[in-house]
Specification:
4 copies of one chain form a homotetramer. Chain A is of the alpha/beta class. Chain A folds into 2 domains: 75-224 and 372-403, 3-Layer(aba) Sandwich (Rossmann fold), CATH 3.40.50.450; 228-369 and 425-436, Rossmann fold (3-Layer(aba) Sandwich), CATH 3.40.50.460. Chain A has 13 helices and 17 strands. Chain A has helices spanning 97-112, 140-143, 164-174, 185-200, 227-246, 264-273, 294-305, 318-323, 337-351, 364-368, 374-392, 412-415, 427-436; strands at residues 10-11, 17-18, 40-45, 63-69, 75-76, 84-89, 116-120, 136-137, 178-183, 206-211, 251-257, 278-280, 307-313, 357-361, 395-396, 398-403, 406-411. In chain A, the strands form 4 sheets. A 9-stranded mixed sheet of chain A has the order 3-4-17-16-10-9-6-7-8, with helices on both faces. In chain A, strands 12-13-11-14 form a 4-stranded parallel sheet, with helices on both faces. A two-stranded antiparallel sheet of chain A has the order 1-15. In chain A, a hairpin with a 2-residue loop joins strand 16 and strand 17 (406-411). In chain A, helix 1 (97-112) crosses helix 11 (374-392), helix 3 packs across helix 4 and helix 5 (227-246) packs across helix 6 (264-273). Chains B and C meet through helix 5 and helix 10 of B and helix 5 and helix 10 of C.
Chain lengths: 445, 445, 445, 445
């Protein structure tokens, strides 16, 4: 079991300034409250199987951690008048980026009275000297309607976060004392290194991460922002594939969705559309040939219903793509499982003398660049505000996220270690098998 | 703290039949598993405040319960060949009803091989002799595309559930041994009484509820199906109100949303749109007049920004509506807070010589009858399948729902006692205040 | 037949400046061309019935006019460097207003190099001294994303256009030489009076109208902008009403849509949804009682199918509303036919002892404030650009619109005389009767 | 000028049966009317440029034809009790197919009392012996909700229409006396050949085509069904490309849309989104290199604004694709201009040392399989009903379509001769250049 120290959040120092938010400090007066550092939220993983379980005693198979709750503190670390806050968005697009930027700006400005807020352009590149990118001045007027636009108004890029010293130089030069980093795994590893470097220089800068992973594969948190919108858009593509498949003789619809290491989008999309017959994810191996392999199962399905729909996560079947020599790179670049399956399936049925009509859809850019659904907008709005509360309280090296429906502080080092995965023995995947009618396993014995 | 017995699920009897689902019974083989009755999911309410908290020791302010996990059992109670299952939808419309019906039918048919499935027409009325409503024969073909249509293909109605004896007669006559009741509070109280009556008659009928409350006010569960779709549609109405308000001099947009006792839709909608300035809910009283009252705050807002948007839950401000003599009934029928506010606000500013331009929108039918969003579709698909697993295992007098992201069995009596409410001192409402800029309280001292 | 002079467009004077657009003047070089004033588009109304018709000879029942084509002229009247253009949006909201504003600004700026463009705030009120409303400076950056927002960024209001002298004073003071008026009938009558007053003062100001009528009742033009979006949104409300009706015993869905004098939205909505059973429009009288009256027909429908959907235009059945004493005003204010029908129908069936379940939806604000559909966006984009071409060419007292799929100049006086109506004997209404199954007439003999 | 005989519609014989529709035959009684064969609608192409034009005298540059109006006739040819109608959908998917099928079935059943209606499965293949495909029985219940599903419930396929004798055999064997063919160019050429063969056999079968071309390239008609929906969906893809482009340093969004010979979708999509900077269509050649070529213009755009969006029709730039040796086939198969541009553009900027970030989207399957927008639903509803009216009147060898906003009968031979194209010198393309800011020509001198 992970100890409490593993989840302790770093603070820049004692908090001596009264928050301007004027919330209540008393429970029972029916007024919204400040949050105390001792307020905790429980995260649980695994089963509480236990013949004769007693309440409060978890079995050995259950991991439990108590996490610090997010929210405004009565005493804050930074004097709002002295704050210069920076926001940077990194990596691939994800629905909700502009909602997050908007929320951070508005919480700083409206709740705390911060008046210097700067957008860093095009990811960490915005800090690097060779690009000479000017800052973007942010205020409530500038961000008022940006949530109606996909993408990120700040711009984004990949990489750059490893140039820690130069970024710390820039932060020093710009006199930033607060940095919000919106990005995935790599971005947050970068922000950790930056925070370390800033500490080495004895600079009091709060580095607060807002985790972005459209794949929904972040440890501990319920879901990542943009994930539900992604499922919504992916579901549209599956509906298209289904209409195509159903309208053709032996029609096969094949849709590749995001999910490098984790099949959450694929599984949710299959469940959402009620129209997929196979869902292939990185966590579960499958054979192509043999009596239990995908191709045989597909034949059976076509014989019975004349059409089929397959949802495949981009990270699924990587052993097969390499085996087929599709990807010669040797590095972690993914083989293109979508195109691979398209060709293999077409060739297989051609060889069998059974012409099929396969339509392959790769909707990824349409998914990534969508505006956030209302559910995701709620989440982004709350993520941004809670990130601001954390930073104003002088907390650093942490991510903000939702755990069992409550917002918490997650120390960055604890989160970036691993990724969350679909449990092949859990209820989500089981319900997806139920819904698709896919056999328990596509592996031959 | 509620004891374990409070959450014990009733079974019709020992389970002697092997499930036809052919899942795995072993953890570690990477194959989807059956669920054991001892598998538990923790539900927690309240804060774990605790200077010096120890893991596994909750403070006195925290209530914890362990709930039985939902899912397919290796041994089932009913022989699928002998099953005649009935499904009934009751009460007002809610997005996802057809998804639930579809899922129940498909899980029974495809997973268990049940071949007699009947839809009860127009709610509990479908059981009553005077309506003489024929059953609707259900199978996968009939339900294949119903999730693309709003409303419920079975039809629905209010009431009738109190005529327990007649309903039990009908169930006996129809030889149903399984009844899925999709409905709210009243419906589930009815289904409890029906289950009691059936037990009195020594009939082995599994009565499994699928809780439906668009207001999202069910105890214990994370959210009810249709809730997110409702927020999505309500958000569209708020956007319309915002466009109207912003386009007029001193424009005021007023939107009434569902929420008789609980303001969840109102609060989420305000957060989702980022466009509301006031959100009024049943849980939080407000004054109209006086320096802190709504009308004064609205004046201030208009003076500053020339337009304002108010989201009001239908159950908010009931003390005011009555006070204004708007509702003479004396019973629990709600006063029409929307029309009341429309008139009061218009009159107030007219008296002040400041003409405003108020647009009032009541989108409730458009919300209720929407098709489910993909997120809700996922939820309905899983709810239906898990309800079927419960019924096939001979479990009865229970509701299926999601708690901390896992599906569980909730004994009906434990759930229908109270309703869930927005906690005025909790983070959700606080974040809504943050987002709207609404003052901490609209009550004068 | 209307003579050519009736459709002659006014010019401010000879055009001596070469257009900066650099289009081609030659047909046949495969390059986009300037338009000549002699280019004409034919508008035809009525039937060309004709035993032995000869091409080019219209029968007496056909009215034909030749209209000046819109588009950029090779020679223009205004020197772009001297232009100060104003844009004003008036009256009720309509989808596409911001698209039009955006298009006018971009065409002026990008195509002609105009650099002084001002938005008049809140309709004609923006010109009036007592409101002291500052102008809004417009350029491509300001308008870049406004089409993603409903309403109008300029603000709007009703009336004020009759204060011609004061408006002309303001135009003179602001040194505007170009005014784009986006609005309906009243607005355009106002703009005509303004143009007359400006001419009286010998001011060379091009007043170009962009007709806005969500009801689609403008003479000559194929359709008005926003109309298709309105139908789209109205169709959603009808779908909601249909889901409600179909889900209830004797469910009746009643939807009121816009259409004061003309039933175009109602008829198109009925056709679009395929779900309406009755469509009631201002152009066609109907009885309530009697063997052919609406109530009897509704009874028949419910007896046969258990549910019914009625679409009613707000201007329909005004004789009945007054007869029922619903509207005591005596002026042109419409009686509320929606609420009237709701009460009459409910009372009728109650008296008959047949309880029905009526749901009434009035979606007008949601319709008006929607963002434009892509089809309407195309139209608005082209309307705005062609309005600019007309103004730069020194044309005035005209409206821009689409006739038989081509953009033309319509002299304002010719257009504002009457309104276009649904022809009860034409194919559109007939096809709507076909689609709904509504009897040929709801009038008793 | 095309003579009247060119547009004369074939009839199977005299009409001796009174229509059961009970419309009015008198104009002026305010009741919907039957249509007479002499009722005409004018179609005009080209300009009416004419110094001193007189009404009724078209200049030499204008082509005019008078077309027979569609609609119900008072006397019909077929006795409804003897009718067996078949419907077949052919070729690629297009939004609205199910709306058309639904409308044909409902008009036959509800308006004329026809009770034998059969769906031919999977296009013309459904007639061919080797597939042995059973008919699909159609009635209002079967088709009630199919418009909420994309694709075609009948299934579709390409080709088969050339096997005229076998199809005629099948029609004879099935005793069909009415065939509705929903399909494009090839399909309608096939239906013409079938009609000829049936006439040769002296079989009285009405063959009525409902033209389907998502590219909107049919001669004479205003637009084809599904076209507006296609633009709507294509616009979403362009918005995605724009969000991607705007969010990256030197981001380029490239979207390929349908349009083999005609650029209507591309041009309308560019206009609808207001976000495209280049629109490339089959009708207008362009150079890649040189001072005016696409690559240079793209460089200029990126230098000025850092991002760019290109919309390309699939049939554009075919000379370039071949020139680049991308397509060795020599036949009419299109080269893949999208992938070609992607590679050429990327290589070009790489060679220049200016790294760009190009995202390529090909949304065609998502477009084709969408459900119809309300505007298209209206059109499909009316197309289907008018096709039924034509067939019941014994008319054959014709297509139903909308010309200048009225439905007409178009003799199939006259329509399938050529395709409609975007006129590079017309106002549509010119307005697109205006909107995109694309230079007048991308050809070097």
């Amino acid at each position: 079991m992970l100890g409490k120290e593993h989840f302790t959040v770093t603070s820049l120092g004692p908090r001596a300034i009264a928050s301007p938010m004027q919330l209540s400090n008393t429970y029972g007066d029916n007024l919204a409250n400040y949050v105390h550092d001792d307020d905790r939220q429980r995260w649980l993983k695994g089963r509480l199987t236990v013949p004769g379980v007693k309440i409060g005693e978890e079995s050995a198979t259950t991991e439990a951690v108590l996490l610090e709750k997010a929210g405004p503190r009565a005493q804050i670390y930074f004097n709002p008048a002295h704050v210069h806050a920076g926001i940077v968005t990194c990596g691939g697009l994800c629905p909700g980026l502009n909602d997050v930027v908007r929320s951070v700006v508005r919480a700083l400005w409206n709740r705390y009275g911060v008046r210097r807020i700067s957008g860093i352009r095009y990811g960490y590149h915005g800090f690097l000297p060779e690009f000479a990118l000017p800052l973007m001045t942010l205020n409530p007027d500038v961000v008022d309607d940006i949530h109606k636009i996909g993408g990120t108004v700040l711009g984004t890029s990949r990489g750059g976060g490893e140039r820690t010293a130069e970024i710390a130089d820039a932060i020093e030069r710009l006199n930033l004392n607060m940095l919000f980093t919106v990005g995935g795994d790599g971005t947050q590893k970068g922000s950790l290194a930056i925070a370390d470097e800033l500490e080495r220089r004895s600079l009091k800068v709060a580095v607060v991460g807002i985790p972005k992973t459209i794949d929904n594969d972040l440890l501990y948190i319920d879901r990542s922002f943009g994930f539900e919108t992604a499922v919504e858009k992916a579901a549209e593509a599956v509906s298209a594939a289904h209409a195509e498949a159903q309208s053709a003789m032996n029609g096969v619809g094949l849709v590749k969705v995001m999910g490098r290491d984790s099949g959450f989008i694929a599984v949710h999309t299959a469940l959402a559309t009620h129209e997929a017959n196979f869902v292939l994810i990185p966590e579960v191996q499958f054979d192509l040939d043999g009596p239990k392999g995908l191709l045989t199962r597909l034949e059976e399905r076509l014989a019975k219903r004349n059409h089929a729909v397959i949802v495949v996560a981009e990270g699924a079947g990587q052993d097969l793509v390499s085996a087929a020599g599709e990807d010669a790179s040797g590095n972690s670049k993914l083989g293109d499982i979508g195109s691979f399956l398209k060709e293999i399936i077409t060739a297989h049925f051609k060889a069998k003398g059974l012409p099929i009509n396969l339509k392959y859809i790769d909707p990824s850019y349409i998914i990534r660049s969508a505006t956030a659904s209302p559910t995701d907008s709620v989440y982004c709005e709350r993520l941004g505000a809670n990130a601001v509360h954390a930073a104003m309280a002088g907390k650093t090296r942490l991510l903000v996220g939702m755990v069992n429906n409550k917002f918490v502080h997650l120390p960055t080092p604890a989160v970036v270690e691993h990724r969350s995965k679909v449990d092949p023995e859990g209820s989500l995947y089981r319900d997806a098998l139920d819904s698709t009618g896919q056999p328990l396993s596509l592996l031959n014995d």
